[in-house]
TrEMBL record:
Alphabetically ordered keywords of this record: Nucleus
Domain of life: Eukaryota
Protein's name in the database: Uncharacterized protein
InterPro entries to which the protein is assigned, alphabetical: Sec_Metabolite_Reg
Length: 302
């Protein structure tokens, strides 16, 4: 074995760089556990965010820098690794700010998280739309990251005023994500993402803004029903939005809509049951993490 020169890529370069990012995510969790208030936790988020940016700018190997011309002597996978790392890094930025994204829609103190997550989501979707080599492997996790980015933009769109320009821009990006997911045939992940994003697009539709069902101040939708539809729903595109109303939604919010009682009953499931029986766990039991944490914070305030 011979040591490589600094700046020379190898097969372990990709994982080494991801390790640095993963270590920061772990450190954030360790710091957050020790905090007693929401604002001290946010200080830790901002601190880790700054260090993530240092990794992206100063600690990133030059062969992973998309602005550096490709060298013929570099391994053939470098262009693919660049795209995948860009998507992965942007997704981890969303992960860092995820717990404050919902709060950022209501409290200007956390507005930095909203802007950061929106920018990261756009980076993911724009990078995923780049022309790819026909021989480039399909990395399934990139599909998941695109869905997470589209969810972020959807939730932001839901909290936009109907006349805001960003609302339509974000909805178009989500539409584009759905169309791209349709290219992945026989992919349960893509299929479920399409259904979930389809519901979120309906909720954010500005043409429905005059209906009291979609008041921006408080949207009474049952997340367990939306997730159940995403994981168990039919493959057709016909969706009755009223089927996803929360049982506590006042009758005034249902005016003018015919409620499909059968569909509401079909998709009314307990969130714990959904996680346990419908969604394969991402982590082993001894890790202490359930799939519930993926949805709780990001979608909690739709």
């Amino acid at each position: 074995m011979e040591p490589l020169q600094v700046g020379e890529p190898s097969y372990v370069s990709y994982n080494n760089y991801l390790y640095e990012i993963a270590a920061l995510i772990l450190e954030l969790h360790e710091r957050a556990i020790k905090c007693n208030t929401e604002f001290t936790r946010y200080e830790q988020v901002m601190s880790i965010d700054a260090r993530m940016r240092e990794i992206a700018i100063q600690a990133r190997p030059r062969y992973f820098d998309v602005t550096v011309p490709l060298d013929r002597d570099w391994p053939w996978f470098i262009p693919w690794a660049r795209r995948s790392l860009t998507i992965c890094f942007a997704h981890k930025v969303i992960i860092i700010h995820r717990s404050f994204l919902a709060r950022s829609f209501e409290n200007a103190t956390f507005s930095f998280s909203r802007r950061t997550c929106i920018a990261a989501a756009k980076t993911i979707l724009n990078e995923a739309n780049q022309q790819q080599d026909v021989n480039e492997p399909i990395i399934w996790i990139d599909q998941a990251f695109c869905i997470a980015a589209a969810i972020t933009l959807s939730v932001d769109a839901i909290h936009r005023h109907p006349h805001e320009l960003e609302l339509e821009v974000h909805r178009k990006l989500v539409h584009g994500c759905i169309n791209r997911l349709r290219e992945y045939h026989n992919s349960p992940l893509a299929e479920r993402g399409i259904r979930l994003l389809g519901v979120l697009l309906l909720i954010s539709d500005p043409t429905r803004a005059t209906n009291t069902i979609l008041q921006r101040t408080r949207l009474e939708f049952d997340i367990s029903k939306i997730l159940a539809y995403a994981y168990r729903g039919p493959s057709n595109d016909t969706v009755h939005l009223d089927a996803f109303l929360s049982p506590i939604c006042p009758d005034s919010a249902r005016s003018g809509d015919n409620v499909d009682n059968e569909m509401r009953t079909q998709y009314h499931v307990d969130a714990a049951d959904l996680v346990e029986n419908s969604v394969p766990e991402l982590f082993p039991a001894q890790s202490g993490f359930s799939n519930a944490f993926i949805f709780e914070e990001l979608l909690a305030r739709i």
